[in-house]
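Supplementary notes for students who missed Thursday's class. We covered one full example, reproduced here. Read the sequence, then the structure, then the short commentary at the end.
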Amino acid sequence: MATGISLSSTSNLTNGQRIVIASAKEAFEPAAPDPDLIESERIPTGVKQWDISTYARLTDAQALTEGVDLSSVQQLATNTLQLTPAEHGILVTLSNRLVRRQGDSSVVSVAGRQIGSSLRRRMAKDVIALYDGFSKSIVGATNAMDITHFRGAAAYLLTDNNTSFGPAPMPLHAALHIEQISDIVADLTLGMPSSVSRTADSSSSFSGLSADMVQRWWRGSDRLYGIPIFHSGNISRDSGDDAKGAIFASGALYMVVANDADVTEEDDNSLRAREYGIFQEWAEGERADPHGVEVFSDAATTV
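Structure (token representation):
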């Protein structure tokens, strides 16, 4: 006969102790607004390619002299972007036994949400990859973005820099990494560009916009110079902790979608499992290079 105090871990007493399993949680899916910020078209059934043409502007009209023939004739010209949608998709296979045994959550519902988020993330990353293609780039690696860069980008876009496309039409959008947004917020709260030396006196008082930003930080729908700023949760950092976002007119980039997301469900009887998938065709490209500015700046963690 054993002697001494009986503990919760004594002998086989643990066999009689219950274990409660909490409901499984899902990883948070970051915001993916990028596909909604650009122009898009639905390609009709029976069409394999979508051509987007932009007419270049003609030269200025001339002053004429009575009785003198106008011999200079202008010719219409277009810039064309050709897009051919490609398939994208993802599959998840769940065994019948897993579906029967999993009691803490509906794995089928979870799988559906996960594959939908995965497809949206792929579409967002395809759009984000286009930001790197804008010829005009501001800030630069290892440097923090400030409001001077932001208003400079807005002024550049609204300037008539290109005879083929003209100035960028409103509205403009900004899609940035959250640390890039954080740098802008820091600049606004101090009321001066990051290039200006900050002192205790200059940073000790806040009023107006600065006070509002300090209290509310960034609410997800703020505007700067009339341009809405979007947190693009799928913009990644490079090895140097820099990130590439963009400020652009919606028509600078273009997406063509061939179909609605096609959700599939298929039994595999020999495997005793069921496949769940989601598939969609799309293509994206740059339509007007002068209507976008790449924002390549430091995105290192603030804390």
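Commentary. The radius of gyration is 28 Å. Confidence is low (pLDDT under 50) at residues 198-205. If anything here is unclear, bring it to office hours.
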